[in-house]
């Protein structure tokens, strides 16, 4: 178990999809704020490098959120390492974009199994630990969870579903002192869907902006829950 300098039990966070982008930025900010952090990813080299870049006892583990048994093992290992769990950041996601007529069954399953079922498995694994001392669940959704677009059949469906799951979690868990917030960004400068961030992305939301928002939400009074946060670039390019 990890303690802070005063002898009190340190807080900890479990972040999925954390080898880069939003997940890594959130994990790094939480570590700086004093949280013990576990980062997960399907890529061993990337997640271990991400944990080393954070230092401060951060753990980088390989975990596919499509595997509920693997998630339970890693959440249990996190609780063993840090003495409990306070923050769950559900971030792992993929995107395949094509007209429904051209979208393959495998692509549909990959998106739904990762973005929606994976979120359910992640939360399911963590609920007992969160109930033990209260906590906060963040689900990383998208403006695509409210705004459908052509070619977004699988991705829209996954994020619409994630929003619904998040709203139900709020109702199911609020009496256990567990908060749930959906964070719904627009364009973010990340590696999502094969994109490589560059200077041309300066107008977009940056991963560090979502990390700052997460820290700000954690500082809200216990009596107050911002249950859904839509985040947009303040000045996108004119079309």
Automatic annotation (TrEMBL):
Coiled-coil region(s): none
InterPro entries tied to this protein: KR_dom, NAD(P)-bd_dom_sf, SDR_fam
CDD domains linked: SDR_c4 (cd08929)
Keyword line: Oxidoreductase
Boundaries of every Ketoreductase domain copy: 11-192
SUPFAM superfamilies: NAD(P)-binding Rossmann-fold domains (SSF51735)
SMART domains for the chain: PKS_KR
NCBIfam families to which the protein is assigned, alphabetical: PRK07326.1 (NF005594)
Family designation: Belongs to the short-chain dehydrogenases/reductases (SDR) family.
Official protein name in the record: Short-chain dehydrogenase
Organism: Deinococcus aetherius
Lineage per the UniProt record: Bacteria, Thermotogati, Deinococcota, Deinococci, Deinococcales
């Amino acid at each position: 178990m990890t303690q802070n300098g005063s002898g009190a039990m340190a807080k900890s966070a479990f972040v999925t999809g954390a080898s880069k982008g939003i997940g890594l930025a959130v994990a790094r900010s939480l570590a700086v704020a004093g949280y013990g952090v576990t980062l997960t990813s399907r890529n061993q080299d990337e997640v271990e490098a991400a944990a080393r870049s954070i230092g401060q006892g951060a753990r980088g583990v390989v975990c596919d959120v499509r595997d509920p048994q693997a998630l339970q093992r890693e959440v249990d290992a996190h609780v063993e390492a840090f003495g409990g769990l306070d923050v769950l950041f559900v971030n792992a996601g993929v995107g395949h974009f094509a007209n429904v007529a051209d979208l393959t069954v495998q692509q549909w399953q990959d998106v739904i199994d990762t973005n929606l079922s994976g979120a359910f498995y992640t939360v399911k694994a963590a609920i007992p630990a969160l109930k033990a001392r209260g906590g906060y669940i963040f689900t990383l959704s998208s403006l695509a969870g409210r705004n459908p677009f052509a070619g977004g059949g699988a991705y829209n469906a996954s994020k619409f579903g994630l929003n619904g799951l998040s709203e139900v979690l709020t109702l199911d868990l609020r009496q256990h002192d567990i908060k749930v917030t959906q964070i719904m960004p627009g364009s973010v400068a990340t590696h999502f869907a094969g994109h490589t961030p560059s200077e041309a992305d300066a107008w977009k939301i940056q991963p560090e902006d979502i990390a700052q928002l997460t820290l700000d939400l954690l500082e809200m009074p216990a009596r107050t829950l911002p249950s859904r946060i839509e985040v947009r670039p303040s000045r996108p390019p004119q079309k």
